[in-house]
Amino acid sequence: MASPEDTIDLDALRAGDQAVFAELIRRYHTALLGLVRPMVGDAHAEEVVQEAWIKAHKHCSRFAGRSTIKTWLCSIAVNEARMQLRHDKRESELRMQDSSGEDPYLERFNSQGSWSSPPAAWQADSPEALLAQGNLADCLEKTLTQLPGNQQALIQLRDIDGEAFETICNELALSASNARVLLHRARGALYRMLEHYEETGEC
Amino acid sequence: MLNCRELVQETTANPDLLEGSRLRLSVRLHLMMCRYCRRYVRQLQRLLALLRRQHDSDKTCPPETVERVLAEIRQAELKQPDPPAS
Predict the structure, then answer these.
(1) Least CA distance to B70: which residue of chain A?
(2) Backbone dihedral angles phi then psi of residue A109, each to the nearest 5 degrees
(3) Does some domain include residue B59?
(4) Mapping DSSP to helix (H, G, I), strand (E, B) and coil, where does residue A64 land?
(5) Can you give the residue ranges of the RNA polymerase sigma factor 70 region 4 type domain (chain A) (predicted)?
(6) Same domain, residue pair A157 and A90
(7) The CA-based dihedral angle spanning residues B13, B18, B24, B29, taken in that order and rounded to the nearest 10 degrees
(8) A199: helix, coil or strand?
(9) Distance from A5 to chain B by nearest Cα, in Å?
(10) Is A115 part of any domain?
(11) What is the domain extent for residue B37?
């Protein structure tokens, strides 16, 4: 199956083809808004993403193709959000957001590190069977959009888009060890949602 | 010897878990002995497979939004043309 990226003509984009750039906006504007919203809040999200598009437009002739175009756009948007927070002297909020949320597995183990509340067996035994259950896709989407910016970016780029981990760390300016901690938290939050959904049928 | 908490930590933070990366020997030994951790890793892999299916469901935005963004880009570039190359 062709990835959506395959249909973007990168040579035309670098040459300044406005129709190709418009196609990028059509595809990724909503995703970029979702990415920066947890970082800067509703009031600033549109402005930050608009600024990201201006930067992307200015520099797209130099897009080297080391990452996918979506990863490149995400990194510009995340950087813009960081600049906005710096401008508002709210940088510490970002650090707090990144480290926010307790360990999703905090209560699950005893003092020896063994399961005190082990995972229960699920009814659904495949991704198809899981997705066939009511509104699970919506629940996943909701949980994803509530994750802090960098956690959401990691899930989006690594687990959804399959981008190389090293590339993501470079683009988001995260150390590999920090990115692993964030990945653990983000996947833990999604796992906890899915586990709850399996038990109760609700988000 | 790895305990369950450490196994969960290590597998959940493994960026390549879905790609079938070779897990450390201590992880594999623990998995051979612990059915709860086997179940956890299987469920986590199911979650990751589920996420991968979301790939093509990126939500596109309407033409008027695209036009608005493009108009703002043009405005910004009129105000601040590219500096000449030094």
Answers:
(1) A22
(2) -125, 150
(3) no
(4) coil
(5) 138-190
(6) no
(7) 110
(8) helix
(9) 10
(10) no
(11) 1-54
Q: Is residue A105 part of a domain?
A: no
pLDDT greater than 70 at residue A96: no
- State which residues form the domain around A148: 120-200
**pLDDT surpasses 50 at A122:** yes
Residue type present at position A14: R
The number of folded domains in chain B is 1
Residue A109's beta-bridge partner residues?
A115
* Exposed / middle / buried, residue A144 (Cβ in 10 Å: 0-12, 13-18, 19+): buried
Q: Rounded distance, CA A70 to CA A157, Å?
A: 8
Give the Cα separation of B45 and B40 in Å (integer): 9
- Average model confidence (pLDDT) for chain A? 87
Whether ipTM exceeds 0.90: no
Q: What is the pLDDT of residues A24-82, one digit of tens each?
A: 999 999 989 988 887 888 889 999 999 999 999 999 999 988 888 988 999 999 999 98
Q: Buried (b) or exposed (e) across B31-61, using 16+ Cβ within 10 A?
A: beebebbebbbebbebbbebbeebeeebeeb
Q: Is residue B25 part of a domain?
A: yes
Indicate yes or no: CB of B36 within 8 angstroms of CB of A118: yes
| DSSP letter for each residue of B46-84 | HHHHHHHGGGGGPPP--HHHHHHHHHHHHHHHHHSPPPP
Evaluate whether residue A1 is within a structural domain.
no
Instruction: Tell whether A80 and A153 lie within a shared domain.
Output: no
Beta partners for A115?
Answer: A109
Tokens of A109: 């183990």
- By Cβ distance, the residue of A58, A105, A114 closest to B3 is A114
First to last CA, chain A: 31
Of the partner residues B8, B51, B73, the one whose CB lies closest to the CB of residue A57: B73
